[in-house]
């Protein structure tokens, strides 16, 4: 998310009387290879044009830079963010923990398409127990500090957790 955008959204919402509308900040969206299946499904893989580079690294975070997550999240919290989102989830458990310990607002984890695809493919080959790996993965995201989890496994996980 662009610098200052949370503040602009908060100001616009508040000025129109929507003071109870929450804002989720995309504070820690990493330039990750784990988005591949989603981009493939939408045929939206990064392409080079005369105005844009082939990758999205100009506006997504460097996977090696944890400090940037703190700086970006702090700015968004100061501007009025009500929740922070870390994307992708599992490769960035340390970032989830870092944000959880640094700020007193909820931290969401986005378990993205590449994470889903790896589990699904390994399960289809009989290498892992899909249900157990999914539930363990979600538990790890929660243990790291995620208060909300967005996942392609939402329906199956809800069913499995009721069993």
From TrEMBL:
EC number: 4.2.1.24
GO molecular function, one term: porphobilinogen synthase activity
Basic and acidic residues bias locations: 45-59
InterPro entries per record: ALAD, ALAD_AS, Aldolase_TIM
Coiled-coil region(s): none
Disordered: region residues: 43-63
GO cellular component: chloroplast; cytosol
Catalytic activity: 2 5-aminolevulinate = porphobilinogen + 2 H2O + H(+)
Superkingdom of this protein's organism: Eukaryota
Any single biological process term in GO: protoporphyrinogen IX biosynthetic process
Pathway entry: Porphyrin-containing compound metabolism; protoporphyrin-IX biosynthesis; coproporphyrinogen-III from 5-aminolevulinate: step 1/4
Pfam family, one: ALAD
Protein family: Belongs to the ALAD family.
UniProt protein name: Delta-aminolevulinic acid dehydratase
Organism field: Cyanidiococcus yangmingshanensis
Phylogenetic lineage: Eukaryota, Rhodophyta, Bangiophyceae, Cyanidiales, Cyanidiaceae
């Amino acid at each position: 998310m662009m610098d200052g955008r949370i503040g602009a959204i908060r100001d616009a919402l508040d000025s129109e009387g929507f003071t109870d509308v929450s804002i989720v900040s995309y504070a820690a969206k990493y330039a990750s290879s784990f988005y591949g299946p989603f981009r493939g499904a939408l045929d939206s893989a990064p392409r080079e044009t005369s105005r844009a580079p082939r990758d999205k690294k100009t506006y997504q975070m460097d996977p090696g830079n944890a400090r940037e997550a703190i700086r970006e999240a702090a700015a968004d919290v100061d501007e009025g963010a009500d929740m922070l989102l870390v994307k992708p989830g599992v490769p960035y458990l340390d970032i989830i923990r870092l944000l959880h310990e640094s700020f007193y607002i909820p931290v969401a984890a986005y378990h993205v398409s590449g994470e889903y695809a790896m589990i699904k493919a390994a399960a289809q080959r009989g290498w892992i127990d899909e249900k157990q790996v999914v539930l363990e993965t979600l538990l790890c995201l929660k243990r790291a500090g995620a208060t909300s989890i967005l996942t392609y496994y939402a329906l199956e996980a809800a069913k499995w957790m009721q069993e």
